[in-house]
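tool_call predict_complex ligand=NAP
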Amino acid sequence: MLTGLHLAVIGGDARQLEIIRRLTELDAKLSLIGFEQLDHAFTGAVKEKMDEVDFSNIDAIILPVAGTSLDGQVDTIFSNEKVYLSKEILLETPAHCTVYSGITNSYLSGITKKADRRLVQLFQRDDVAIYNSIPTVEGTIMMAIQHTDFTIHGSNVLVLGLGRVGMTVARTFDALGAHVKVGARKTEHIARITEMSLTPFHLKNLEEHVKDVDICINTIPHMIVTASVISKMPSHTLVIDLASKPGGTDFRYAEKRGIKALLAPSLPGIVAPRTAGQILANVLSRVLKEDLQSRKG
Ligand code: NAP
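tool_result ok
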């Protein structure tokens, strides 16, 4: 149980509702900031405005998956008011207060460092990233179907990166009957791709492998689908870029060449917010319990 913990849940989308539900079930006390327009009420959770919260009592701050923007704004789909997290707010919290986010950026890492508060990025955890890759791939399939006039089955699919998302993408598109090639730069990844009975190639040879690609799915959060790469693709190629913003595709050049290239962030929150929220709720409740126990000694 999380009895005695006071948590501030700041902003977020439908995924956050699963987290709120789970944490209130576990008896945590919740301050919900940026949820004025949410009709549902949760026992043990109070909707508050940022300036109404007494942060000196807050044991942990729970941010949405994206954390904050580069100017500190937190996305709040259940509110019309803009909500910002600042170093000053963090300094009001007790020293043990931990900030939980999916990912971070220079702003969020900067204010937590300056305020000397611990920042936990849930998506750095392999378990969260692997579970989350399941709704991500379902969303990718949805996009591939919506934006093509051919079947996935029998099409040439290029997957860039064999990380936690890339592996699930490659395996799932293979299971749907696509001809899947996977680009990676590590020899162990090339070996794993071979073991999966898929076609591996080294990323340095990417340009050679896009000549007959129907769907190119990027999971590498660095510029990889460059203008030069795009210039070698057939004109009907669909590029789905799953990497976190700004993605790894030269979208400007793709548009100029008439190649459809889509940055597709937060697919789990779009196609399966309940499952995606449950994934986060499971791990958050476990981590918060561990933190509570370690503080009690
Ligand atoms: P990951 O496990 O860290 O995998 C990243 C992959 O990119 C690895 O194969 C890595 O290879 C490769 N890579 C990184 N930098 C590279 C570079 N400079 N050149 C070549 N390869 C490079 O990450 P993940 O969990 O799979 O997530 C991948 C991306 O998808 C992240 O940006 C994540 O935020 C995003 N994501 C998006 C959604 C969505 O809905 N769109 C959902 C989940 C995750 P090495 O091992 O060789 O470095």
